[in-house]
Amino acid sequence: MALDNHSPSLEILVRGPEEFSLWTGPPFVNGQPGVKLEKINCVNAKFSDDGSRLMVMKSNSVISVYDCKNAKEIRSFELPNITSAILSPCGTYLQTFQRPSAPQEKNVTLWKTETGDPVYQHSQKHLTKNTWPAIQFSLDEATACRLATNEVQFFDGGDFSKGIISRLRVPGVAAVELSSTPGSHIAAFVPESKGIPASVQIFASGNASQSQAIARRNFFRCSTTQLKWNRGSTGLLVVVQSDVDKTNQSYYGESKLCYLTIDGKHEGLVPLRKEGPVHDAQWSYSGLEFAVVYGFMPAKATLFDKNCNPLLELGTGPYNTIRWNPKGKFLCLAGFGNLPGDMVFWDYLDKKQLTATKAEWSVTSEWSPDGRYFMTATTAPRLQVDNGIKIFHYNGSLYFKKMFNKLYQVDWKPESPSKFGDITELIMSLDLGKVEDKKPSGQGPKSTQASKKASSTNPLAQKPAAYRPPHAKTAAAIQAELLGESTGESLSKNALRNKKKREKQREKKAGSDASSS
What we know:
Elements: E1 11-15, E2 19-29, E3 32-41, E4 44-47, E5 53-58, E6 62-67, E7 72-78, E8 82-87, E9 93-98, E10 108-112, E11 118-122, E12 135-137, E13 143-148, E14 151-156, E15 166-169, E16 175-178, E17 185-190, E18 198-204, E19 215-219, E20 224-229, E21 235-242, E22 254-261, E23 267-269, E24 278-283, E25 289-294, E26 299-305, E27 310-317, E28 321-324, E29 330-334, E30 342-347, E31 352-358, E32 364-367, E33 373-378, E34 388-393, E35 398-403, E36 409-412, H1 423-428, H2 446-457, H3 470-473, H4 475-483, H5 493-516
Antiparallel strand pairs: 1-2, 1-36, 2-3, 4-5, 5-6, 6-7, 8-9, 9-10, 10-11, 12-13, 13-14, 14-15, 16-17, 17-18, 18-19, 20-21, 21-22, 22-23, 24-25, 25-26, 26-27, 28-29, 29-30, 30-31, 32-33, 33-34, 34-35
Keywords: Initiation factor, Protein biosynthesis, Repeat, Translation regulation, WD repeat
Protein name: Eukaryotic translation initiation factor 2A
Family: Belongs to the WD repeat EIF2A family.
C-alpha cells in the first residue's frame, strides 16, 4: 500500500562538525537514505516552523536562507559579530542578534527574507533564554510581540512599519509566552519581589490596552517557570521550579505543575499522585490532553484530559521524557539523558502498551511528521562518543541505524500532520522488517567479549555459577548434617575430603578412649 501521491516526502537534516546534509526519506531505498542537499559548510542550521525555509549560519558570518521545495538558496546575509539567528514560523522574517560594539547600538534586526531589507531594529544588551527570540510570533505570523521593561509590546506581524501598535503593562515581568495557534493570548511570569509571591498571568493579546488578567496563579518558592500553551490557545501548563528544596529530598530543588485555562475554570495544581520533581509535561498535538512524567525514580506517568482528569496511567519506570505522535493514537515514554534509554511505545486510544525497547545515550528524540517513525540521536557536544541516529517504527521496532564519528544535530523537516493520511492507513503501508541493533566491533568489556566468544564456540557450555561467599558454601551441608539428611550429592570434593577426615578423627578418638578405660 503506497502513500497518497499528494503527501509530502519526509526529509532529515543531519549536521556534522563543519557541514550539513539533507536526507530524503524514510522509507529508504535499499535501506539507505537519499541525499537532497549534500555537505554544505555551516556552524548551525534551522528550519522554519512550517518547513518552507531553512536558515544556514556559515562560519564566515554569512547566513543563507534556502527554499525547502527545491533546496535552492534564495537570500544571503553578511553580518559581522553574529551570535544567534532564527526564522519566523512561516519563514517570512529572519531575526538576528549581533554582539553590540557600542552602547545603545541597535543590534537585534528583523529582515524580510524575500527582499533582504531590515523591517525592524532595537537594542538588546544580553542574550538569555527568556529574551530570545526577542520578537515572538504566532504560528500564522498575524501577531508578534516583544518583552520590554515592565511591559509587553505588540506589533502587526504583516506590517512592522506601523511600529508598536499596543502595549501591555505588567510591572516586574521577566518572561512571556505568546500562544501560537492562534496568537490570541499571552502568558506573563513575574518573579518574587520583596515578599510578594511570584505569579503567572494570562492576558488577551488582541486587547492589550486592557491590563486586567483573565487568569492568575501565585507561587512562593519559585525561581523559574516553563510556560506551555496547547493548540487552540485554551490551556496553559506551568512547570514551576525552585532552586532549593526545603524538605531536603532533592539536591536539584523542587518543582510542581499548575494548569490555567482562559475561561478561569482551572487555576490550580495538577493532581499528581507521587511526590518528587516534574520531569516532563507535554500537550498532545490536538491540545485536548496532556501527559506528565513525575516523581522520584522510578518515575510515574499519567495522561490527563483538558479538564485535568486522569485518563490513563502509563506505569512507573526510569522515565523523564514524553513524546506525542503528531497524528494521534501513539506516544513514546522514555528515559534519556542520564537515564539508561528505556523506551515504551503506547497506543493510548486503545490503552495498551505496544512494546518496550532501548535507545541508549540518546540526546534528542522526535516523531516524524507523518507519525510512522520515531527518531533518536546521540549528538555532540553532550556526548563525544557513540554518536549516531536510530529510527524506529511506530511500534518500537528498529528500522534504521547509522553511526558517526561526530554528529551535532538531527532534525525532521517540519510538515503539517494534516498533509498526511489517516494514521491507521499510514501504518498499514509500512514494511515492519526489523534491523538488528549490533554494537560496533571492539566495543564492550573484554569479559563480555570473551564470554560471547566462548558461547559461540561451545554453545552447550554452561554459564559460570553465581558467586557464593565461603560461609554459604557449607551452610547447606551443615543444615543437612544436623537434620540427618544425605549430603553426598550436593557436597563439593573439598567438603567430602574434610568430612572423611573428621570421621577418621572421631573413630581414632573413640578407639583411644576405649583402650584407656
